[in-house]
Amino acid sequence: MRLANRVAIISGGASGIGLAAARRFVAHGARVVLADVDADAAYAAAAQLSAEGAEAIGVEVDVRCYNQVKAAVALAAERYGRVDILLNSAGGNAARVLGRSGPFHELDIEVIDWGLDVNLKGAVYFCHAVLGAMIEQRSGVVINMGSVDGVTGCGSPDYSSAKSGMIGLTKSIAILGAPHGVRSVCVSPGPVLTRPAMAKMRTRLGRAAEPEEIAELILYLCSDDAAFITGANYVIDGGRSVGGPY
Ligand SMILES: NC(=O)c1ccc[n+]([C@@H]2O[C@H](COP(=O)([O-])OP(=O)(O)OC[C@H]3O[C@@H](n4cnc5c(N)ncnc54)[C@H](O)[C@@H]3O)[C@@H](O)[C@H]2O)c1
Helices (DSSP H) in 52-206: which residue ranges? Predict the structure, then answer.
């Protein structure tokens, strides 16, 4: 029980890595708030976790809307009394999510806006909304989902720059939070099998990660075992970013 009685808000918690992390969190005694733009999926995931004996609620949040972000944090505080963990997992490749394709410079600017806003601005909004309460209670952990693309630049420019921004956000929150017992860590995965297509991405280890492998790292970073870790970027990519010819 590494997270006994802690309360976690997970943006993008209705699926993929966010949901896998939620599962690890509740298995270790946490209560979770699944904040996702896909309301039905968030409610269904929370209902499933609750049916398995966990304390979980789903809430509809578009991370691009600050009032919805703020309302989700207020709901967590009202329902569970505090917020100990924020996992910013909402995100994805904008062109894929929006069903557009084409060279970067030919994409509609709305696609670029989605890539920047969901992958970075939403996380900044959530940090803004939770940090006051974490400072007041003198504890808290923020985990930002980056990507190996944010380290290498090998992604669409909107995605890579947003994910690099998650590293900067992590460092800033680490600096602001440290005097108040608040930690912040970025997790930058390589390909993860939240979609079958990710199996085609090359890594040194010759495979993509299971979402649970990323969730296990997140669990560790949120736990007191990681009490001396803040401001760091954890690359978990099967060696994809080490460079050199394959
Ligand atoms: N899967 C990978 O290979 C991989 C690799 C590196 C980084 N990541 C990052 O990990 C995070 C999770 O990815 P995943 O593979 O689990 O994706 P996923 O699509 O399974 O989950 C993303 C979740 O975010 C939600 N979401 C999308 N837009 C939103 C918005 N505006 N407001 C709130 N929620 C919104 C979706 O509804 C979905 O539930 C993302 O930030 C992604 O960029 C994923």
Answer: 66-80, 94-97, 109-116, 122-137, 149-152, 157-177
Q: Which residue in 54, 60, 63 sits closest to 14, CA to CA? A: 60
pLDDT tens for residues 17-48?
Answer: 999 999 999 999 999 999 999 999 999 999 99
Degrees (nearest 5) of the Cα angle 21, 132, 16?
Answer: 15
Residue among 27, 23, 33 at smallest CA distance from 2: 27
* 197 contacts 93 by C-beta, under 8 angstroms: no
User: What separation in angstroms does the CA of 101 have from each of 98, 121, 190, 225?
Assistant: 9, 23, 21, 43
Backbone phi and psi for residue 85, each to the nearest 5 degrees, phi listed first: -135, 135
Q: Which atom in ligand 1 lies closest to the alpha carbon of residue 13?
A: 39
Q: Which fold has domain 7-238?
A: Rossmann fold (3.40.50)
Tell me the best of 194, 240, 241 to mutate to test the pocket of ligand 1, counting ligand atoms within 8 Å of each CB and taking the most: 194
C-alpha distances in angstroms, 188 versus 23, 42, 130, 135, 145?
20, 24, 22, 25, 6
Q: Report if pTM > 0.90.
A: yes
DSSP state of 244: S
* Model confidence band, residue 14 (pLDDT cutoffs 50, 70, 90): very high
Among 66, 80, 125, 159, the active-site one is 159
Residue 90 Cα to ligand 1 middle (Å): 4
The full set of domain ranges for the chain reads 7-238
C-alpha to C-alpha distance for 239 and 59, rounded to whole angstroms: 36
